Amino acid sequence: MIMLSFQQEPALRFARLSSLLILACTMATGVRAGDVAELAILGFSQNGSIFAFEEYGVQDGSGFPYANRYYIDTATDSYMKGTPVRVRIDDENASLQAARDKAREQGEAIVTQSELSAHRGYTAGSNAVTELSADPLRMAVNPRPVFPAIDKPLEFRLEAIPFGELEQCHGMGEARGFRLLRIDATDGGSTRIVHEDKSVPQSRGCPTGYSIGAIQTFASEGSVSHYAVLIAVQKIGFEGPDYRWMAVTGKF
Fold first, then answer.
1. Which of 122, 169, 167 is nearest to 141 (CA)?
2. Structural domain count of the chain
3. How far apart are CA 235 and CA 246, in angstroms?
4. Is the residue at 203 inside a domain?
5. What pLDDT shows up at residue 33?
6. Which positions make up the signal peptide (predicted)?
7. 13 in a domain, yes or no?
C-alpha cells in the first residue's frame, strides 16, 4: 500500500495523487480482450461432398475450453445430420486438448479424421483476423498451385446486411448479416450471389462484422471441383469482441 504524507509540499502531494488516480483508473478498466477462436481446416471427404473444419479456444469470462466441428454438405451448403459437433467442458482447469479430443471422437461417426486428412484440399488464400493490410471483404485466388494457371480465378466479395438491434444483442449493438458474391473475371466481371442472410440465427449470437478468412479448394479427376469460403464472424462477447467461424461451400 502506498501511503502519502500530508506534510509534503502541496505540488508534490498533487502530483502523487494524480498518478494514483491514473493507476486506479487503469486497474479498474483493465485490458479487455475477447475470445478469438482458432481455425483448423480439416478437409473434404473422398469425393468432395463433405467439407469439415474446427474452431476451438477458451471462452472469455468463464475460462471453459471448447471445440466445435462443422461438417457441411457441399452440394446444398447445409450441415450434415447430427452436426455441428459442439463440445464445452465446464471446468476452467480442463485442458483445451481434452475438448478437442472429445469433439474429434464424436466427429468420427460422420467422416473419419484419416479421410479428411487424406483429402484436405488446398488453402488457396488465407487472412488472419489480425491482418491489417489485406482487404477483409474481398479475396481472389488461383484455385491451386499450378503455374501458369490452368483454372479460372476464384474471387469472392462480402457485403454486410444490417438487421437492427435483435433480441440476442441485449441492447448492446446492432446485428449484421452478410451477402457473399462470387465474381467471374472471365465473364466481364459478372457476379452471382452464393449466400445471402434472410435472418440472423440465434447460434450466431449478435454478429457485428464479417471478414473472409480463407478459401479452401478441392480437386478431383484432374480439375478443381469444390470450394469452401471460411468467414470470420465478429460478435459481441463477454469481455470484448469474440470471433467465430463459418463456411460457405459450393462447386467450382
1. 122
2. 1
3. 13
4. yes
5. 67
6. 1-33
7. no
- Does an H or E element contain 29, and which? helix 10-29
Cell of 121: 484440399
- Using an 8 Å Cβ cutoff, are 37 and 246 in contact? no
Max mean pLDDT range (28-42, 101-115, 162-176):
101-115
Look up the pTM and report it.
Answer: 0.86
- Tell whether 32 is covered by a domain: no
Three cell numbers at 180?
Answer: 457473399
Decide if 14 is inside a domain: no
Nearest-angstrom CA–CA distance, 88 and 100: 9
Q: 82-126 pLDDT, tens per residue?
A: 999 999 999 999 999 999 999 999 999 999 999 999 999 999 999
Q: Which domain holds residue 163?
A: 38-251
Among candidate residues 184, 194, 116, 195, the one with its CA nearest the CA of residue 151? 184
| Rounded CA Rg of the chain | 23
Whole-number Å distance between alpha carbons of 65 and 58: 4
DSSP H or E run through 113: helix 113-118
Q: Report residue 32's pLDDT band, with 50, 70 and 90 as the boundaries.
A: low
68's grid cell: 466445435
Residue-wise burial string across 183-193, b where 16 or more C-beta atoms lie within 10 A, e elsewhere: beeeeeeeeee
Instruction: Identify the DSSP state of 47.
Output: T
Per the CB < 8 A criterion, the answer to whether 67 and 249 are in contact is: no
